Amino acid sequence: MIDKFDFDATLLTTNFATRLLAMEVDKDVLIDRTLEAFCDLGSCQNATLMMYDDHRQLKGVAASVKGRRFTINEEIPLTDAMTEAADSLRPVVRPVCNDTEFPLPAKSCASKNTCLCVPLVGSRDLIRGFVTLYRDKSSPWEIAELFQLGIISTVAAVSFENSKLFRQTIEDSLTGLYMRRYLFIRLSEEVQRVKRRHGDLSVIMLDIDHFKLVNDTYGHAAGDKVLKAVADVLHKSSRKGVDIPCRYGGEEFAVLMPGSKKEEAEIVAERIRRACEENIISASDCHIKVTLSSGVASIDECDPQSGDELLRRADKRLYRAKESGRNMIVCIDS
């Protein structure tokens, strides 16, 4: 039984964790918060998050081992424990598998640890994935912990559903970057933040050099691969959960960088430019190399301080880079 004091404390802790999950729509942040919530409420340092993809293939997403978090990108075989947890919609306790770096349930083993397999039950009782946690057999999971984890599992599953729906409305389907309209929403929010609290805000505007020639020479399918390759560079060069990389239109891109000075944005722009210049893109029976021209601006240069003025300055510098020979970055007005 959970006495009144424990019950109140349990609800308080669960409420805090559910709010953090329910308010988040960024998938990467949501993954991190889900692992954090399960480890905190399950009083352990080891957990694995697995999710079904669009083809209903179960894949490892991320794990925490002794407090160290890392991503996983591999198919996970469905175990008997997972099947039982999915059928019952309840957590299942099993021995922990010793053959993997991250915790997964096993049928039996000599391990001194036990594995708790928690189903992520979403809308219409659809199983979205599983979270597995393990700790020493001498510390079995209490009723209060199972109560908390059961609530968190549903909130996490529904939050991932909402995140997917939200991303479909703001992401470019070809590149996976944010759409232009989302850039305008976030830009307005960040400008207001700067006006209230001060701070830094910069933007990089980028354009693929001679992209029309790529389409005319190699075809639109090859052009799409080039767009995806450039988008991948932007993804890898941006800070997850902080920067907003967008497809601005056609072959033009933008990276909004909250909290970054112009000098910091210039470093990122150069990193992107160099990565694209060195990248060889394979498309059907050909190999393509492209370059980028970029313009960089910061909010403290703008008078008045507005999102429109920030984009106008960066765009003007982008076209100066084009006129000056391409494959370069311009950070100041002539």
Brief digest:
The chain is α+β, with helices and mostly antiparallel strands.
Structural summary, described in words:
- With 334 residues, the chain is an alpha+beta fold.
- The protein has two domains: 4-168, Beta-Lactamase (2-Layer Sandwich), CATH 3.30.450.40; 180-330, 2-Layer Sandwich (Alpha-Beta Plaits), CATH 3.30.70.270.
- The protein has nine helices and 13 strands.
- The chain has a six-stranded antiparallel beta sheet with strand order 3-2-1-6-5-4, with helices on both faces.
- Helix 1 (4-22) packs antiparallel against helix 2 (27-41) and helix 2 (27-41) packs antiparallel against helix 4.
- Residues 1-5 have low confidence and may be disordered.
- Its EC number is 2.7.7.65.
- Residues 199-334 form the GGDEF domain.
- This is diguanylate cyclase.
- One of its GO terms (molecular function) is diguanylate cyclase activity.
Biggest sheet, strands in spatial order?
3-2-1-6-5-4
CATH architecture tag of the largest domain: 2-Layer Sandwich
How is the biggest beta sheet arranged? 6 strands, antiparallel
Structural class: alpha+beta
- Report low-confidence residues grouped into runs of 5 or more: 1-5
Strand content range: 15-25%
User: Any idea what the shape is?
Assistant: elongated
Assembly state (oligomeric): single chain
Radius of gyration over C-alpha positions, nearest whole angstrom: 24 Å
Structure annotation, total helices: 9
Catalytic activity: 2 GTP = 3',3'-c-di-GMP + 2 diphosphate
Domain GGDEF: 199-334
GO molecular function, one term: diguanylate cyclase activity
Organism: Maridesulfovibrio hydrothermalis AM13 = DSM 14728
